[in-house]
Amino acid sequence: MKYKYLLFDADNTLFDFDMAEHETFRETCSVFGIGWSEEIYRKYSEINAGFWKMLERGEITAPELRTRRFRVFLDWCGYTGNALPEEINARYLGIMGQQRFLIPHAEEVCRLLADTYPLYIVTNGMKAAQESRMAGSELRPYFRRIYISEVIGANKPDPAFFEYVLQDIGDPDRANYLVIGDSLSSDIDGAVAAGLDCVWFSPKAADAKGRVPTYTVHELPELLSIL
Fold first, then answer.
1. CATH topology for 5-15+102-226?
2. Which of 46, 51, 83, 110 is the most exposed place for a label (fewest CB within 10 A)?
3. DSSP character at residue 175
4. How many whole angstroms from its chain centre is CA 142?
5. What is the distance between the alpha carbons of residues 96 and 103, in angstroms, rounded to a whole number?
């Protein structure tokens, strides 16, 4: 057995974040009387994704992201209500924590792999939403621990994130770890920078943009043939 530990990203690797974000945003708009449409959602998603890229690059902190994304969005849509960005964000995260849509085959693959490997979550997601979502998810029994960047104080792809994970697990041998994730900029770049083998989960068979992950899979069951 080549690897001893499997480090899974959460969003769009095991959990369907796109669906969760869509439903969370729709419900949040309903709560605060914000006009909702697919066009408005696409704009919010664009704004949100931009701030997450800034977080990955170390240009902002997680607390800044939480409020600035909504401040920019509310300015764009001309919101005239009384709710503050901080209030909207708190409700948004609460709703997000209840969204547990899974990527196809996630439960069966994790169940099978957990019989042989210790599984861990490694995520840049927000602590409040990630902990709540995992606590109520059918995936929770298969994972030893959830590592969240907001708690660690470093975000993927910063090698310090993975250094913390390895130290906490207690095995410094990088050859024993395999990182599985969908994001080239956080999961794959982060794993490579930390000297860890990685699997790029690419359901749409996208361009790797010059990266050379150790493995590439298009469906989660393909992991079973690798491991």
1. Rossmann fold (3.40.50)
2. 46
3. G
4. 17
5. 16
Kindly list the distances between the CA atom of residue 133 and the CA atoms of 140, 186, 191, in Å, as whole numbers in the listed order.
Answer: 9, 21, 24
Give yes or no: 9 in active site.
yes
DSSP state for residue 84 in the 8-state scheme? -
- What are the beta bridge partners of residue 170? none
DSSP string, 45-79: HHHHHHHHHHHHTTSS-HHHHHHHHHHHHHHHHT-
Based on C-alpha coordinates, what's the Rg of the chain?
18
Instruction: Note the CATH number of domain 17-96.
Output: 1.10.150
**C-alpha–C-alpha distance, residues 18 and 218, integer Å:** 17
Q: For 71-85, write each residue's pLDDT tens digit.
A: 999 999 999 899 999
Q: Going edge to edge, which strands form the sheet with 119-123?
A: 143-148, 119-123, 5-8, 177-181, 197-201, 215-217
